[in-house]
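Our consortium's second objective concerns turning raw sequence data into structural hypotheses that experimental partners can test. To show how far this objective has progressed, the report includes one record in full. It was chosen at random from the queue rather than selected for favorable results. The single chain below, 303 residues long, was entered without modification.
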Amino acid sequence: MRDDEIDRIIQRSYDLHFHIGPDILPRKYNVRELIQQEQGKIAGIALKSHSFPTITGIIASGEGESALKLFGSVTMNYFMGGFNPSAIYASSTMSKNFPIIVWFPTIHAENHLRHNYSNYEIPPEWVKDPEFKPRIKTELKAVRVTDWNNSLFDKCVRVLKMIKKMGCIMATGHLSWEETEVLATEALKEGIKVIITHPNQKDIAMPLRTQKDLAKKGAYIEHCYVMYLDRDNKDDYPLDEMADKINEVGADQCILSSDAGQMGNPCPSESLKEFVKLLLKEGITKSQFEKMLIKNPETILGM
């Protein structure tokens, strides 16, 4: 595909995973800055924060005056009260035009804390602020969604009920793949739209057979550009393996997102454009990109 063809796809695309500021972790854009940057370049962006509901920033920005569609979210970390159905209810009620995304725990997930080799909940080197007061990981009780019998905790079931009631989209966060499988299976039974958050990331490493099984049940498998861009070693996330997994699962049940918003990384439209160029070289086709960037996100969002 030529650059102008890629641009036309990106202009109709939806990035369902972009980190917005202000936040504890430094972010490249606040909502107004993001609108100024991305107006006319991409159709819509779902805004994520590890620590606060993003719908308030969308409303305060006057987003209704913009052609760029912005989607709010909440993340079930301790900052939001953990498994807090009321937080979901409040954000959903405020988001009058679109469903919100509810991410299950990210930085407070047991799986994330286990693989975060720092002693801190949020490593100071991630924040780079001399005034920042980091918390030791052992001060926190790591969050799981399943008990030792591999059953969902009641508090998680209550969250799923609120997600269903309010018509939200569920994303699985940084849970272990085993927990993700249990959670996603239950959510899909309830008719909830489910995104499996970057299952190929090293600290999740969901087996391909599990991804294929969940996709057959209706889940969407997410592939993120920043997972490749910010890799620790050049061979951590080979693009040919990424393309193979897309083909194995099927583009009908995959989405591409940026997972960007960090200070040094590109905006959503540039991230997705570069991602497309890279995956083109690995044989991913125009029709597959249209499904993963346009059709599938529109289906998830109920557009």
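The partners drew two points from this record. The longest strand covers residues 14-19. The beta strands are 14-19, 44-48, 69-71, 73-75, 101-103, 169-171, 193-196, 220-224, 254-257. Both points have been shared with the crystallography group to help prioritize constructs.
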